[in-house]
């Protein structure tokens, strides 16, 4: 008997260099630790930010949420940060879980992925960045989830951002 398992290829052919200007963002940080599963913390972070954005009147068909995390170490405290650009007046009450803050911009090399392929695409993209000679990594990185209809699903499009500068550029 032969068993065939479909394998989805990792696509990192599409890459672009973008310049992000400093921006104001709404921000939430979910924290976990021993006994709290990684997916619970991630789900909490998205739920809080999406609920807040929808309460502010943001268009639910086109939410962009930026994500940074430090991994899901089982014995240590870990976190999952989510933030989104704000370009209009928003309300953050004293009892809100969401706060406002300023974020620095910078140059980033970006490639798209699907949420279900985020880890293998990110690894392949990172390997590509390390092996090529056009860009030098700066250490910054985040993912940008393009959320449709207020939900994060396996088919959610994600844009992976690695901080970079062109080789030969000064700081």
Low-confidence stretches: none
Distance between the termini: 59 Å
What percentage of amino acids are in beta strands? 35-45%
Spatial extent as radius of gyration: 17 Å
Estimate the mean pLDDT confidence.
85
Number of helices: 2
Organism: Paenibacillus eucommiae
Protein name: DNA gyrase inhibitor GyrI
Write the layout of secondary structure elements.
Blueprint: E1 16-20, E2 23-32, H1 38-55, E3 63-69, E4 78-85, E5 99-103, E6 106-114, H2 118-131, E7 135-147, E8 157-166
Structural notes for this entry:
InterPro entries: Reg_factor_effector_dom_sf. This is DNA gyrase inhibitor GyrI. Helices cover 19% and strands 39% of the residues. With 171 residues, it is of the alpha+beta class. It has one domain: Alpha-Beta Barrel (Multidrug-efflux Transporter 1 Regulator Bmrr, Chain A). Strands 1-6-8-7-3-4-2-5 form an 8-stranded antiparallel beta sheet, covered by helices on one side. The longest helix has 18 residues, at 38-55. The chain is globular, with a radius of gyration of 17 Å. It starts with 15 loop residues before the first strand and ends in a 5-residue tail after the last strand.
């Amino acid at each position: 008997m032969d068993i065939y398992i479909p394998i989805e290829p990792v696509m990192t052919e599409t890459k672009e260099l973008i310049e992000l200007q400093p921006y104001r963002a709404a921000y939430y940080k979910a924290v976990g630790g021993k006994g709290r599963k990684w997916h619970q913390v991630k789900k909490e972070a998205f739920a809080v930010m999406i609920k807040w954005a929808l309460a502010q009147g943001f268009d639910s068909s086109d939410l962009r949420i930026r994500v940074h995390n430090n991994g899901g170490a089982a014995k240590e405290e870990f976190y999952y940060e989510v933030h989104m650009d704000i370009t209009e007046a928003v309300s953050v009450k004293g009892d809100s879980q969401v706060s406002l803050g300023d974020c620095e911009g910078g140059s980033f090399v970006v490639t798209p992925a699907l949420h279900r392929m985020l880890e293998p695409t990110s690894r392949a993209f990172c390997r590509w960045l390390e092996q090529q000679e056009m860009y030098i990594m700066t250490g910054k990185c985040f993912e940008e989830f393009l959320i449709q209809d207020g939900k994060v699903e396996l088919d959610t499009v994600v844009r992976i951002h690695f901080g970079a500068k062109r080789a030969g550029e000064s700081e």
